[in-house]
Amino acid sequence: MRRLNTFTLAIAIIFALSMSFSHFAFSQANLIQGGPLAEDVLLEDPDPNTDALREDRSAVESWISVWYGPDGNYEENGGFATSAPIDLIDEGTGGALNQVSLSTVDGLLMTADIDVEWGDANGGTRGWAVFELDPVDNNHMERGGPADNIDTYAICVIDSPSDMTSVMSPAHDDYAQIWINGEKWYNNSRWTGAPLTILHDVEVELQKGLNVVLYRCGESGGSAYLNLHFDDVTNDAVSIYPEAGMDKQGLLDFVASSVDVEAKGKLTTTWADIKRK
Q1: At 78, is the secondary structure helix, strand, or coil?
Q2: Residues β-bridged to residue 30
């Protein structure tokens, strides 16, 4: 009996050590919890935020590749450190939209009629379009324009079947900022090292129905990419838009119709509650 217990204990120790090594080798990225970011830390980097946290996620197949946003970049940004504190959406729309409102359903729908006027020195007038970014391309932010001193805005819409806690994983070069449903969840001026490499997993809250994700990345020089994936549980449960082949009008029509359905559902529920009373 003692021999069996010793053998069982040895197996358990080996398993625990292997699991610890596996965790060390494959799960070094830092998990950020407790968001969204408070007002006084909106432009502060995560802590810790070192190269040692880098984790290769090239085996992940759910990196998002289809996005919606301005049909070109903000150019000549003076470097990402200079541009990061400036709300370029507010600047380009004369205050009709800003980064916070653009990360909401109402703000997203306003892009049907509002262009972004960044001026000739900064890329000119930008409409809105669906575009694709190849996740493995470490220069995909260029989008046919200058490679350096640019800012890219990219939006996706997550349709969730319920309220849920989710984990998003961003890869970026250089400065990334991410808003969801009007709140900022991620700010990091440190590039991640490769297009499919992350420094941080970020725990976020998704609401039932549509969730608007606004991803901004500012670039100074060298590689230029922004990528994002969600955890497997979330990815299996939700639908993410725009889909391949969807254009601007198709996306906005989908969002508008989903909002109408949600509003009708709430009205029906309210009426049923009144009748029961």
Answers
A1: coil
A2: 200
Tens digits of per-residue pLDDT, 25-38?
A: 345 799 999 999 99
In a domain, 20, yes or no: no
Phi/psi-derived region of residue 113, left when phi > 0, alpha when psi is between -120 and 50, beta in every other case:
alpha
The residue among 107, 238, 271, 85 whose CA lies nearest residue 182 is 107
> Would you call 269 helix, strand, or coil by DSSP?
helix
Write the pLDDT tens digit of every residue in 250-266.
999 999 999 976 554 44
How far apart (Å, rounded) are the C-alpha atoms in residues 63 and 227? 7
Structure tokens at 95: 């205050």
Q: What is the pLDDT of residues 164-191, one digit of tens each?
A: 999 999 999 999 999 999 999 999 999 9
| Pick from 77, 44, 70, 210: nearest CA to 130 | 70
In Å, how far are 49, 101, 167, 185, 234 from 66, measured between CA atoms?
28, 21, 19, 21, 18
Judge residue 149's burial from the number of C-beta atoms within 10 Å of its C-beta, 0-12 exposed, 13-18 middle, 19 or more buried.
buried
pTM of the predicted model, to two decimals? 0.86
Q: How far is CA 146 from the centre of its chain?
A: 23
Q: Is residue 23 part of a domain?
A: no
Domain extent for 134: 31-276
Q: How many domains does the chain have?
A: 1
- Position 8 in a domain: no
Closest CA to 30 of 186, 180, 138: 186
H or E stretch covering 5: helix 2-26
Smallest CA-to-CA distance from 175 within 212, 149, 136 is with 149
Q: Is residue 4 part of a domain?
A: no
* 166 and 178 Cβ atoms separated by less than 8 Å: no
Token representation of residue 114: 């509002």
The pLDDT value recorded for residue 266 is 45
